[in-house]
Amino acid sequence: MRGHEHSNNDLSGTVHGFVVQAGSVQGGIHVSGGGAREEVPPPWQLPPSVRITDRTHELRTLELHRCRATEDGHPTLAAVSGLGGVGKTAVALAWLHTLRPEFPGGQLYADLGAQAPDGPADPGEVVGRFLRALGVPAGQVPSALGERVALYRSLTADRRLVVLLDDAATAAQVRPLLPGGRCVTAVTSRRRMPGLSLDGGHVLHLDPLSPEAAIELLDSTLADGRVAAQPEEARALVLLCAGLPLAVRIAGARLAARPRQGITAMVRALSEEHERLEALAIEGDHDVRAALDLSYQGLPPVAARLYRLLGLHPGREFGGPVARALLGEDAVDALDALYDANLLVDVAEAAGGERYRFHDLVRLHAAARAAQDESGDERTAALLRIGHHYLAYAGRAEEIIEPGRPSLEKEVGTESVVEEDFGQLGAEAALDWLERELPNLMAVVRLARPMGVPELAWQLTDALWPLFPRRKRYLEWHEAHQEGLVAAEEAGNGEAVCRMLTSGALGKLAAGAHAEGLEMFERAAASFQERGDALGHARTLNYRGLAHQRLGQPDRAAELFARAADTLPACGDLRAGALARFNLADVAFSQGRYEEAVVDAEAARLTLEAAGDPYNAARAAGLTGRACVALGRLGRAEAELSAALSALRVQAAGFEAARVLGGLAQLSERRGQPHQARQFYREALSLYSSVGRSGSADAEEARARLAALEPAPAPEAPALEAPGPSPSGEAQGDAGE
User: Fold this and answer.
1) Which of 274, 300, 445, 293 lies closest to 364 in space, CA to CA?
2) Listed residue (425, 260, 284, 287) closest to 353, CA to CA
3) pLDDT at 254
């Protein structure tokens, strides 16, 4: 009931969506609003376990550490270190898989890429993946690392799950990825990590297998009696493998493929290869190199060539289509041959789809064989095929996500065929592909200029545009456009220079670097003017206005927006003109000129709807509604704000939806409904936090208004010397809320 603030029906905790709270209700109740959030199943991302030998002591040590941490009420952290190929990941997986019954909250997995060619994985990107796996919509993943980590630990505080952080580079890379609560985290690294001891971690170093354990592993790999028949030869073979499970498995796989060959022949071959492969040794892994070279020599010619060419791939993982881009349909059987020879790891279960990666040592070996057995021209041609493959796929994804966007012309090789039907799968699937392949796409952008094809850098950067603002990939947004700009300037391509400047500057604005963004927009404006591109120059008017607005210069921003609103339609871009008029309305609203804001926002909405831009049309409707609240036109305000909120919820536009909720809260205040206003403010603040904008001016205003609406606490009752039952039989006390 309006004006009544005391109730015995309190609401506390975090509220998402619409809430109805009532004491006594008569009559029918009709509630409409956003649908219930779909229940997200627990993530089960751990790769499958493999058979291990002679690791009973290590597994017992890990489990004792977990039990001790649990008894003390602490989370479990264990770091497993050792030489490449010694079986660190296998031990961690063997332990973690046994914990599934006790940790029903799920399993998270990340390859941190300490040995990856493009450098270790960025912790912020990994936390973002974890958040999405835990059910956070992509558009609501905060942009700042600190806020991502805070949200990640909040989501895991009461959740029992295990996390495997594979191939870590440093303890500093690991720390942001540690979950909250009493979860279990295992870290693997080639380096010892004593720094994690400060975080309560137990550091376990794996040594190579003893000869007896390595012989047992060889026997289980062969499973044909040859080890028992030739025990001395088997011992000599595993000694040449340096006790590394990887080397033993590779040697065993080669022998298994030759059931009539004695172990002696493999021992002789490894011994002969040892000295010749000395230059390829990494961390003393001479015998692993020899085993890899022998395995390579046993491949069919087509598979051996694919092995060499895939060794040139610039990223950590690759899909089957990359292999087919390199080798055509012959790649299908060649991939099977590489997998059967234990030279490829199938990671499809963890990543989805047809996907592979090399063990780090195998990848180095494949690259070395490419340098030795392929000419410079052949290596360059293979890298171009890889680059054109990714450009063709990224370009197709861009067309699906933003079909009306004019993009730079793309020059892809004639052999680059897009196998995945993004058109049928939809825009979200295309965005997912771009995000999954982003490490590979960025690696190609970095390689383009050294390869002598600078146009590949800016063409691929331009194709990536739809991903950056939607999935808030600010670091890659900046790096890609910086590299694309240098490449375009070196090549003297004015059109590409302007595109890299404007798209890159929008990234600067999104990341809060407003002065840098303005400088880039002004450079673009000068370049457009020199080239005689009136439309391009007119668009920079709007962009420069945005930068001035965020720099706290509203009058200069309004001047630029007004010029853009007049000039852009005359140049043929009605939609951009409408966006400029919307921005003009936003300035008028911020300066209290609400009548002007309503006129400009409504005009912008009509044009944006006609142009097929529902997101910006909803933003314009929301601004109209907020201005109507200020003008006291409450009926129209409610209609505009409700329509805008529904449209923005559908598009998961958290920040804009929060602003509309703030308008609805103020509308409730004007109507004398403080309880409803508090509900709207709380939901708005929750959305601001979820998208990393809890410190924005809009969020601060909502927080202050909510605090002003909170009912004052009731005064404490005076203490009684002899409390007893009241005449009614009830205990004496506060009779407030």
Assistant:
1) 293
2) 425
3) 81
